[in-house]
Structures are given as structure tokens and as C-alpha cells.
Amino acid sequence: MILAAGRATRFKSQVGLSKVLYPLAGLPMVEHILRVVQKLQPEQIVIVVSPETQEALLNRFGHLYTYAIQEPQLGTGDALAAALPAIDVAADYLLVLPGDVPLITEEALRELMTSARGADAAVLTFEPPNPRGYGRIVRDEDGRLVSLIVEDSDAEPEQSAIREVNSGIYALEQRWVERSLERVRRECGKENRKGEYYLTDIVRFLRTSPVLHQPWEDLMGINDRSQLALAEDVMQERIIAAHAHDGVSFMRAETTYVEASVRIGVDSIIYPGCLLRGETVIGESCQIGPMCYLDDCRVGNRNQIVYAHLVKVHSEDDVKIGPFANLRPGTHLAESAKVGSFVEMKETRLGTGSKVPHLTYLGDAEVGRDVNIGAGTITCNYDGFDKYRTTIEDEVFIGTNNAIIAPRRIGKGAYTAAGSTINQDVPPDALAIARGRQVNKEGYAKRLRERKARKRTADEGVSDEDTAAPESHLDTKEQD
After folding, report:
1. Which domains does the chain show, CATH number per domain?
2. What gap in Å lies between CA 67 and CA 243, rounded to an integer?
3. Per-residue model confidence as pLDDT tens for the chain (480 residues)
4. Is there a smaller number of Cβ atoms within 10 Å at the N or the C end of the chain?
């Protein structure tokens, strides 16, 4: 049972996003919890939601889970009561978690379930550096059971001094839950300062074992953006440690950000300043970075990517990218292709062994194998209304500073001359030249300098500033 109906009041957001949907390492907080809970193979997972949260969760997860609506939100006890009718399996224990504990681990939950079998219930507890905001655990005289959980806002001074606090994570023997919740409603009422029914009051009616867990970060709740930032630090340490354990090297790991869904092959090296996001998959023996951004990319084996920005890019084996390449969605780089400095590509396939070394834009293009694209080349693919494709067949050589006006096809083995504007298809093995003819006027520069000198002599007495000003025109006869 995951209690996910709470609002993100202390996040002070203007968009009204539910707290459990705030991203942590690229996933909604609640998804981290779901991933851990699923490892326990529960009979059923019920998520307690508000009407607004339900729509967002359905968009994310579909009907993988059971949803129970809590409306209005009258506290955690009320949330659990709202969820009980949604349970349609027979189970011995009910595991209850708040939706804002994304750092929870499988080991902690198994520890909790083991302790619950010797009592009616068990609760995970921890000792954070600053217990403010957490409910305090008041143990009985023997210290073996919980006699009371006091919310921070309701605690007396001596209770506020207690370091052990409530995580909000419970294992409850299911046969006692409904009866105990009814007693909470009837006997505890809305006696707290917030006027809500607290699940914490259930320990008054069940023999509850406290399970003190370390490290405390595993159980921390996220109530504001500063706590979210701290959780992000912890999550990054975990993610990078897991990759390192599996054979990935990180140079200055503290400068790198890796989201939870990213996969990296063995013997790859991640250099400083990299952001690896989404469903990115990196092959074996790759060198990524420094300063690379990869989002939803598929990277083959032995790729070298440096100072590059890639989104939804697929590169095959032995590809080299960068520095300063911007590869946009729909870019596919075949084996041994090269994309160099200051190159932008989108919706383009670059064939095996082809090279785009520098200063180029390729959009909506199909480039064959062993093609060389000269510096300054642009595919002119957009007329303000529609996009058009360019096809460059195998073994083509595109000269420097070409503008290829799509839709165009350049045949196999063709050459285009430097400085050309290609506005017609080029046949295979042809040379296309499309540029203004160069005319050399012999002695013109010398005559121009002499004429300027004579004019300066004639203008004696004019200020230096005026004589330094360039003339706005030339003698048209001389130009002709």
C-alpha cells in the first residue's frame, strides 16, 4: 500500500505537481518505491491517490496497479482506510509506505517484514541528524515495543528531544488492520492540531516492534526541494557505485549525473561533466566526455564522444563524435562514422565510414557509406512550410561550403566543387560546379592604390579623420 495522495505544499510550485511525481534521478519519486516493492513480489500493489494524482499515474503506469481515491485528504489513517476496500487478495501482512520515501531499499523492507512476524505490526525507524518534522518514537519501558508515535507538531518538549523518528513505513498483520483503524477513528478522533486521522495512532492498539535502521538516508522523507536535492545526491552515489561495481570507470564521479534508467557497458569510461539521461544505453569500451549530454540515446561499442549534445541518437560501433557536436532526434550514425566539431544533425542517417568533420548542418538527409562532407556544408531542407529530404549516395565527395537545396539526390561517386549551390540532382560519378565565375583584373589593385594616393594629396588641409574615412563608391569605369 503506497500512500500517494499528499500535496507538495512546501515545494511552492505553481504547476500543482503532486509530490510523489517530482523527478529524482529521472524517475518520479513513487516509481523508485514501486521498483523496490516489486522485488518483494507482493500479491497486490495499491496506490492511494487524489483525483488529480490518479490521472498522472495512469498516464505513467497504466493499469499495472490498483488505485484507491482518497477525497478529501484527512490524514494517513484516513488514506489507509480508503484503500482497504481495494484489496482483493488474501495476504497475511500489509506493507504500508508513504509515497515520498524514494531511497527505501529492499533490504530495509525485508528487515521490517521479518520483525513483524513476532508482533502484530512493525515500523521502520531511524535517527536523522535533525529530527525536526518527523514523528518521534516513544518506546515502552522495556524498549521492545512502540507505545506512542507523536507528530512533531504535537510533541511536548521532552518528546521533541527524542532522536528516534518514524519513517511512516509499516508492516501490519492484515487481520487486525480494519478493526484497529476503526478504533483510531472512534477513540483518537481528530484530536491532533491538524484535525486529521493519523496512521501513527494505530500503534496504540497493536503490539508494534520498532526496527531501527541504518543508514538513515534510506528512510528520509521528501517534503521540500532542499530534501529533494539531498536525496538526489544520495541516489547519484548509489547509481554510480552500482555502475562502477559492474565495470564502468568514472573520472571525478561527483561531477557526473546519471539517471536511474541509464545502462553502461563494461570497460567504458565516463569523464567529468557528463549528464546521462532517460533510456540511454552505452555499449562496451566507450569513452564518454568530458562535458557530454546524452538523453535517450543508443550508443554502440567503442564509441568516442567528447563535448557533445545528443538527444535520441543511435550510433553503431566505433563511431567518433565531437567536439562540440549537436545531434538531434532521428540521427543515426552507422559503424565507423565520424562527426566532428561544430556539426549539427537531425533526422539524418550517416552511412558506414562516412565523415562530417566540421562546420556542417545536415537535416532530413540520407548519406551513404564512405562519404566525405566538406566544411561549411548545409542541407537547405525547409522552405518555411515543409521539410524536404536530401539523398547523398555512397562514395560521394561534397566540397567545402556547399549549399544543397532539397529535395536533391547526389549520385554514387559524384563530386561537388567547393562553394557550390546545388539546386539540381547530380548524376553518379559527375562533378557538379555551381558558383560564380572568378574574374582576375590584372593591375587593378595597383591602379586603385595610386588613385587613392593622388586624392589624398589633392585634399591637403582636410582633417585626418576625414582623410581616414573610406570612400563609399569606386569609379564605375574602373570597375567595369
Report:
1. 2-223 (3.90.550.10), 226-432 (2.160.10.10)
2. 34
3. 999 987 788 888 878 788 899 999 999 999 999 999 999 999 999 999 998 888 889 999 999 999 999 988 888 999 999 999 999 988 899 999 999 999 999 999 999 999 998 889 999 999 999 999 899 999 999 999 999 999 888 889 999 999 999 999 999 999 999 999 999 988 886 665 666 788 999 999 999 999 999 999 999 999 999 999 999 999 999 999 999 999 999 999 999 999 999 999 999 999 999 999 999 999 999 999 999 999 999 999 999 999 999 999 999 999 999 999 999 999 999 999 999 999 999 999 999 999 999 999 999 999 999 999 999 999 999 999 999 999 999 999 999 999 999 999 999 999 999 999 999 999 999 999 999 999 999 999 999 999 999 998 888 655 545 544 444 444 444 443
4. C
Model confidence, pTM: 0.88
| Residue 104: burial class (beta carbons within 10 Å; 0-12, 13-18, 19+) | buried
**Catalytic residue from among 243, 332, 358, 473:** 358
Residue with cell 565516463: 270
Residue 358 appears among annotated catalytic residues: yes
